[in-house]
Amino acid sequence: MPTFSGQLAVSTKGFGDILDITPEVQEIVGRSNIKNGIACVASPGSTAGITTIEFEDGVLRDLKEVLERLVPMRQPYHHDARWGDGNGFAHVRAALLGTSQSFPVENGRVVLGTWQQIVLVDFDNRARDRRIRVSVVGD
Predict the structure, then answer these.
(1) Boundaries of domain holding 66
(2) Is-above-0.70 flag for pTM?
(3) Which strands sit side by side in the sheet containing 117-122, from one edge to the other?
(4) Domain count of the chain?
(5) What is the pLDDT of residue 112?
(6) Distance between CA atoms of 125 and 41, rounded to whole angstroms?
(7) In this structure, what CATH number is given to the domain that contains residue 97?
(8) pLDDT tens by residue, 50-101
């Protein structure tokens, strides 16, 4: 079974910065020459997540507000007490969202709904340069 791996580099602002990485993921999947299979999109690390959402200002704001209610930034975290880096909230948010997602590939493209985009959400408390991995397995 053929496999292919690629990566994309992105710079984020942290603090819930949400980037639409759909075009870059589609480009990597296209380069794989795998017509049908599965693509896994992963953000190595423990302070960013991968998910899908409609990349529209209102729902992006909704997501940020819900995450702030669930995992507030300005709350004491045991991680912060141990390491003093102030990003305990980022680790918890990434754990809840997940650091990877898998998608079906058909006819050499990731299958997504009409209003569905693949996004990276960087929860860290500083700007970051991230390398997102895309692994494709198929026929």
Answers:
(1) 3-138
(2) yes
(3) 17-20, 117-122, 48-53
(4) 1
(5) 98
(6) 23
(7) 2.60.120.460
(8) 999 999 999 999 999 999 999 999 999 999 999 999 999 999 999 999 999 9
